[in-house]
Amino acid sequence: MKDIAGGAAECISYQKAAYSNSGHYVSLIMNPYLLVFVACAAVVSAEVHQFNIGYRPNVRQRMNAEGKLAEYEQERQERLTEKSLQLVQSSSPIIDYEDMAYMVQISLGTPAQNFVLFIDSGSSNLWVPDITCAAGKDATCGSYCKSTPYDACLTFCQEECCTKTVSKRKVLSTADACQSKHRFNASLSSSYVTNGQKFDMTYNTGEVKGFFGVDTFCFTNTSACCTDQTFGQATTIGEAFAKQPEDGIIGLGWPALAVNQQTPPLFNLMNQGKLDQPYFVVYLAQIGPTSQLNGGAFTVGGLDSAHCDSNVDWVPLTTQTFWQIKLSGVASGTYSQSPTAGWQCAADTAASFIGAPKSVVSSLAKVVGATYVPGTGAYFIDCDAVVADIVFTINGKTYNMPSSSFIVSAGPGPCMFAFYDLTAGGFYPAWMLGPPFMRAYCHVHDMQNGRLGLAKIL
């Protein structure tokens, strides 16, 4: 690092660097096992941090590209039927892990052990696989390693899984999903403390079971760290988790949503005085059909002036579980719907598409020219279709979402219409306003004042 007058700093890396409003350059450096997010601090505020969000098309998109979407959807519906009773009886939502697509890198322990995790504002727990998961079995290459571009493959998989010649890559040789994950070893951490509590979390893909531990948490290679972070150590994860490259999940929701009322990492950072402001900001870039190392930016402790307009529209939360607000109306072309009571709507980084009531989805699909394909559970549309924006009314203001945000590439052939039918029940709000909307507006999460900010993307 070379100091520069005025408190700036210069970092030389193997990948491009992004500048944050805190005066940090955030550079991406590849090593044989993980994508390392390196924050090179300048002499400005050390308590606002920004780093890249990685992106990988969700399982549904990948199955469509491989011509296996109908087969996958049949298996998925069978799982949903099995889980339906649990959904009714559960006090917390059953989450579709296979729909997740955005991730960051974190570390746990002293010295640091690195993990790539999905970011999920629809849940509040942090969990990673424990060393006892698939104990005694050699690490293997996940099936996703076979189809992932070389540079992105190095993010998720061991080097021997990522030969540049795709046909020579190894594939998963066992159904045990833990064998292709990075696993936490408590015996290697001098700061680890036992907790004693067990957990059992239900996903559409299967259950995750294990126990809680306590250790130091960091966003990898930054000073955004907190002590005494409780996290889940999974000893069993469902077989279907092998389809996804990430090791686990970092929940961004409120503490009240967490299993066993554990404090989520970002709230822990705030409570320990590690943030300039009680905010975290999600900016998502427009995406293509393949994995991207730079799918957006995640800012912790302040605003994101590099990607987001300085004018933030603040919307009060209706509950402090999800990042949940009231959606008053939706319109596109000749279609408009504004129920008297509005809808409860959760901002959700985990769901790759937007979940809405079935009648709304079918009406929007009709007006933009998307067609439902039986057996796939999805709507398809011409990738070059010229269609009207979809307009949301929130807190008295309108927000336009252009077609570039909701017409999503999914391999050869037509694109996917980025909406899905959401059956609200039990704990769920009526809408899950996912990444397509976030690609049009930055989301500023205020953990102190219970509000969600929306800002235009620059």
Residue stretches low in confidence (pLDDT < 50, at least 5 long) are 1-46, 80-98
What's the CATH topology name of the largest domain?
A: Cathepsin D, subunit A, domain 1
Share of residues in helices? 10-25%
Radius of gyration: 21 Å
Descriptive report:
With 458 residues, the chain is mostly beta strands. The protein folds into three domains: 2-46, no CATH class; 58-270, Beta Barrel (Cathepsin D, subunit A, domain 1); 309-456, Acid Proteases (Cathepsin D, subunit A, domain 1), CATH 2.40.70.10. It is 14% helix and 37% strand. It has eight helices and 32 strands. Residues 1-46 and 80-98 have low confidence and may be disordered.
Provide a compact summary of the structure.
The chain is mainly beta and 458 residues long. The chain has eight helices and 32 strands.
List the main descriptive attributes of the protein structure presented here.
single chain; 458 residues; mainly beta; Cathepsin D, subunit A, domain 1; 3 domains; six-stranded mixed barrel; four-stranded mixed sheet; 8 helices; 32 strands; 14% helix; 37% strand; disordered N terminus
